[in-house]
Amino acid sequence: MTFVILGCALPAYQTWWPLFVVLFYILAPLPTLIARRSTDDSESNNNSCSELAIFITMGIVVSSFALPIVLARSPPGVGTIEWGACYLTLAGNFVVYLTLVGFFITFDQDAADYSMW
Question: Where does the chain cross the membrane (predicted)?
């Protein structure tokens, strides 16, 4: 989040458009969490539900990387962002999504360790 806020608040950029990627940060883990909740209840649609959740999650992740690039490439004077703000936002995306992947990997291993005993 620090990179995203820097991309918005630094005096060289001073535009808050990159902050819209925070919406993608909130939406990204939701399909996976919903799929996990539904697979606990019924094992019959486990594979198709998980694949749909991964597909939707990947669409959200790609959108969060594409938004700053599209904003930086749009014509000047239309409320766009500078390339430096774009790079800072992309770095923030990278850090946030690595954290989310680490979260899901950690809790998958945690559940597997307890089920072994």
Answer: 12-32, 52-72, 84-107
